[in-house]
Write a structure and sequence with these properties.
heterodimer; A: about 675 residues; mainly beta; two-stranded antiparallel ribbon; B: about 325 residues; mainly alpha; 3 domains; 17 helices; about 40% helix; about 0% strand; elongated
Chain lengths: ~675, ~325
């Protein structure tokens, strides 16, 4: 209690100090020398009214802590009076750990712009394990970006993002001798540093007149490094068992892009890109030992660098032409080549993908592939009210080392209709026929008694997709938009003698509507609703029984169905209750999802999340205002599912051995939060 | 103390920057800077003058536009484009002002505002073809992020620049990207409800918490990669923040090596870790269960005792390093 009061006093003290500073500058800074200051500073606090157990609120705090205690927000912009130079500063929630954001920018219109931002957030996992209060990753992000245009034709640009992740996340490990189908949980340490630097130069040839052809070109270099401060860990209670954590790695990309505008040749524009990437990973691996584990000495367990690498080539070329004003023709070719350099690498006497090798060798699954896409399209505008689109896409994926190939053909049609100035309608339909072939039968090699399966992302498929978007403005004060989309994927693979185990079908539709209404200059209201329905079927559970030939299927029949539905409602209101004095704003959303596994063992999964964010703002004068608000958040998950996560399921309904503390991000407790906030704001 | 240190540091930085700018850019230098800007145009001075003279004949001029459209003019003057066009034009085209984009308004003026023939109008339902409206914007903006607009999916669907952006008025007119709505998500949701509303699903990226928005991953103006992602390929996109899964690994998992979206639904999911389907079923989309353990129902219909181990992340409870393993014994992704 004492601590609580101390915290409140500190918040008030800081708020008052901040306001004093604001006043001192506020009277003179609106118009300073050759600059004008715009923006606001607001300071205040937030109070969380209920106090459920810390661990129960995990979901509501998944990415950021509750906005409580001392809070401040600011957005300031300093602009030179002649309007070219500007400096900006923005911050939100200073001092609130894992939710602070600071942003600085400077620039001169048409010459340069530079910005730097530092922010924090978190990713909390569910905390059902009572011995561990916080399972989560804390993320710090430092981003810089900027460009400089020494002349209008040339631009130099650079950006950098530094990510720092620390903390832990749930982990688990199979335990016991033999094949026990049992596991234990542990906390995986997270100590990541990632840096992505991009820099380049662009040239844009100036266009003297509308008929002159122009060229544009850009070269970019991208360096991405990932460093894991801890590349392995010794499992608790498993003295000889080390687990590999994500290895440090790096990637370099050099990309050249360009475009040629041939204005006089049927208004044609040709654009293209070529990117070469080199990926490398040389973190250490463990010594090859028996299943009992590596040698006990730490120094003896490493084998040196993995020495793995891969190269990528991404190419793209497109031509767009407008021979007559109503007609647009397009053609493009895109390729992504992943060249795996590790196929023939020997490490610790393990050879990768030896033809005729053992199943174990093959399961290393190192291979290269190239994905190519050809796209053709034509768009014809009959008049201002009607336009048609026709298109065709071919995509092929070729993999080496008997990993098969995939080829798909997708014709499509589209229609755009604007019969009146208050109605526009866009609709598209696409059909895809995909064929997979020449796959290696891994499973057959590994488990001769099993029937074979295929890979849903590369096997044969028939797909239909359609969508409609309508925008309707029946009155000047009303805007409506409607969406409807439907898809149907049927997997038709018969690669292994008509064995169709795996994903069978995936169907779904979604519909949504938004309505915005402005009945009065002082009132703006909007409502939105979206519904999504998904249904998938798989034929997957099959296992050999010892001593018996053939395969048994089970789990409520050979076909497993999963049905998901999602509903989301949103509502907003902005009302100026007293013009230039009292404003009322509210935002609310509620979403509900239901997943039905059609299985009497697996309970249905129901989740809901809702929030309300309401604020009243009273303006004392042009500069001073106060703001008070209420924030409500609620989250819930079906109880039966919670039990499944916390206890597992046994025949007797008793918790399994060590599955009770399974904290694998699949479960959070139900929670609500009520937050009251108040701010004092000074506007320049 | 630490709670106020960072904001204080930020403010100090801002103040120092401000004083620096005051000392290094005094008022007298402004015309010089403006000259510099104007000199970016490589056109010879004579040609410039000729063009200016010609433009006087062809165009009504900004002052005339302002007479009737003063609220729009005032609003435009506050935007970045307005400041350049109306106060610091760099080229002859920019100097024309409103008519740079809207075309000559002489007929409009001579008709007392009744005729808009020949003018380019950007409002919804305008008779000006979308391609013509877009061409106006691209004359200056077809570079940087817009290099691949031509042929992009949004261009194909008939979107104009002004579908998502505003020039004079609108909620986002004074923000840097001048969006037609208050923020990026409100702009995209008009057509992409299913994707944007997915941020309310159980597992989601920190969109609704304000740590990301649609443009963190997508460039709506066109890219060389599918789905308008900001990477050379969809496979490479996720590594912008999740490079821990990039590898190459000693033991690769093929769907990871080809595309993260084989298993993950990046916009939101009812299942943990943005998975496309429940963990207990996702793996079996490809894999037959090899284990001689019926996890839920036995052959005779009896309930088995090890169902619990398929809770949580199901197969990944044991095959933990499913994105790839660097362990010599990691062939089954156990370690």
């Amino acid at each position: 209690m004492k601590m609580k009061f101390k915290r409140e006093i500190r918040a008030v003290f800081l708020a008052v100090m901040f306001i004093t500073l604001t006043c001192a500058g506020g009277s003179a800074e609106t118009d300073v020398i050759t600059y004008t200051l715009n923006g606001f500073i607001s300071v205040g606090g937030g109070w969380l009214s209920d106090l459920p157990r810390h661990m129960d609120r995990g979901y509501l705090k998944e990415y950021r802590p509750f906005p409580q205690g001392f809070l401040a927000d600011s957005e300031l912009k300093l602009e030179s009076k002649e309007g070219l130079d500007y400096y900006g500063f923005r911050m939100s929630h200073p001092g609130l750990n894992h939710d602070q954001d600071y942003f600085l920018e400077a620039g001169k219109l048409g010459v340069y712009h530079a910005q730097i931002e530092y922010d924090q957030f978190q990713h909390l996992y569910c905390t059902v394990n009572p011995s561990t209060r916080n399972i989560g990753i804390y993320i710090q992000r430092l981003r810089f970006s900027g460009y400089y245009e020494p002349t209008p034709e040339i631009a130099l640009f650079a950006e950098d993002q530094f990510l720092r992740r620390t903390g832990c996340q749930p982990g688990s490990f199979v335990v016991g001798p033999g094949n026990p189908y049992n596991f234990t949980t542990y906390l995986r340490p997270i100590n990541y540093r990632q840096n992505d630097l991009r820099a380049g130069v662009e040239y844009d040839q100036p266009q003297a007149n509308d008929k002159q052809s122009v060229f544009q070109g850009r070269v970019t270099y991208h360096l991405s490094t990932f460093e894991n401060g801890q590349a392995d860990m010794l499992l608790p209670n498993n003295a000889n068992t080390y687990v590999s954590l994500p290895p440090s790695n790096m990637a370099n990309y050099v990309t050249a892009e360009g475009a040629l505008d041939l204005k006089s040749f049927y208004k044609t524009r040709i654009s293209g890109s070529l990117s070469y990437g080199w990926l490398a990973q040389n973190d250490y691996t463990f010594e090859a030992t028996t299943a009992a584990g590596p040698p006990p000495t730490a120094a003896g367990r490493y084998t040196g660098g993995a020495g793995l690498s891969a190269t990528t080539i991404a190419a793209y070329i497109a031509g767009v032409s407008r021979p007559i004003p109503q007609l647009t023709l397009k053609a493009s070719y895109r390729a992504y080549d992943f060249d795996n350099n590790n196929v023939n690498t020997n490490i610790l006497n393990l050879a990768f993908n030896i033809p005729g090798g053992t199943a174990f060798d093959r399961r290393l699954e190192q291979y290269s592939y190239i994905r190519q896409t050809v796209n053709l399209g034509a768009d014809y505008r009959v008049n201002n009210m009607l336009a048609f689109e026709l298109g065709y896409t071919w995509q092929g994926v070729d993999r080496n080392y008997e990993q098969g190939s995939t080829s798909s053909n997708s014709p499509r049609v589209g229609l755009r209709l604007s019969p009146t100035d208050w109605l526009s309608l866009t609709t598209n339909y696409e059909f895809t026929a995909r064929t997979g072939s020449n796959f290696l039968n891994y499973e057959f090699v590994f488990e001769p008694t099993s029937l074979l399966t295929y890979k849903f992302y590369s096997g044969s498929l028939i797909q239909n997709k359609a969508n409609v978007i309508a925008e309707v403005d029946p009155l000047n004060s009303v805007t409506c938009s409607f969406n409807f989309s439907i898809h149907s994927d049927t997997y038709t693979d018969n690669t292994f003698g008509n064995s169709t185990f795996g994903l069978q079908s995936d169907r779904g539709w979604s519909a949504g509507a938004d309505v915005s209404w402005r009945p009065h200059d002082r009132v703006a209201l909007s409502l939105g609703y979206d519904h999504q329905q998904l249904h998938s079927e798989e034929l997957a559970l099959a296992y050999p029984l010892l001593g018996q030939p053939g395969v048994v299927t089970g789990d409520s029949g050979p076909v497993l169905t999963t049905s998901d539905s999602y509903d989301t409602f949103i509502a907003r209101a902005d009302v100026k209750l007293i013009p230039n004095k009292l404003d009322f704003t509210t935002r609310a959303s509620y979403s509900f999802s239901n997943s039905n596994f059609n299985n009497h063992i697996m309970p249905s999964l129901n989740e809901y999340y809702g929030d309300i964010n309401t604020f009243l703002t009273y303006k004392f004068n042009d500069h001073w205002a106060c703001k008070a608000g209420y924030i409500f958040e609620v989250f819930g998950l079906s109880k039966a599912y919670q039990r499944l996560y916390t206890q597992g399921i046994t025949a007797a309904g008793v918790a399994g051995n060590n599955q009770g503390y399974n904290t694998l991000d699949g479960f959070y407790r139900n929670a609500t939060a009520h937050i009251v906030q108040a701010f004092l704001q000074y506007r320049f | 103390m630490r709670r106020i240190f960072i904001p204080a540091l930020g403010l100090v930085f801002l103040i120092l920057g401000f004083f620096f700018s005051c000392t290094s850019a005094p008022r007298e230098h402004i015309p010089v800077r403006e000259e510099n800007l104007t000199s970016f145009s490589k056109e010879p001075a004579k040609e410039e003058a000729k063009k200016a003279e010609k433009s006087k004949e062809e165009y009504a001029g900004v002052e005339i536009c302002q007479t009737c459209h003063s609220p729009v003019y005032d609003q435009l003057a506050k935007t970045a484009m307005g400041k350049l066009f109306l106060k610091h034009p760099r080229t002859a085209a920019e100097r024309i002002g409103c008519e740079t984009c809207h075309g000559s308004g002489t007929e409009h003026v001579s008709s007392g505002g009744k005729s808009v023939a020949g003018m380019v109008r950007f409002t919804k339902g305008s008779p000006t073809p979308v391609s013509m409206r877009t061409d106006v914007c691209l004359k200056c903006h077809e570079k940087r992020e817009r290099l691949f607009w031509s042929g992009s999916v949004h261009e194909t669907k008939g979107l104009a620049c002004t579908t998502c952006h505003v020039v004079h008025t609108g909620p986002g007119a004074l923000t840097r990207f001048q969006l037609a709505n208050l923020n990026v998500e409100d702009t995209c949701v008009t057509c992409h409800k299913e994707q944007v509303r997915a941020e309310n699903k159980f597992s989601h990226h920190p969109m609704r918490e304000g740590k990301m928005d649609c443009t963190s991953c997508h460039n709506p103006h066109g890219t060389t990669s599918p789905k308008l992602v900001k990477a050379i390929d969809t496979r490479e996109l996720c590594f912008n923040c999740h490079a821990q899964y990039r590898g190459p690994f000693l033991f690769q998992h093929p769907p990871v090596m080809e595309d993260c979206f084989n298993c993950h639904q990046p916009h939101g999911s009812a299942y943990p870790s943005l998975l496309k389907s429940p963990p207990i079923r996702l793996c079996r989309d490809c894999h037959i269960t090899f284990h001689n353990v019926p996890f839920t129902i036995g052959p005779a219909g009896s309930i088995k005792t090890r169902i619990g181990i398929m809770a949580g992340t199901a197969c990944v409870n044991c095959h933990r390093n499913i994105h790839g393993s660097n362990n010599v014994q990691g062939n089954l992704f156990f370690r």
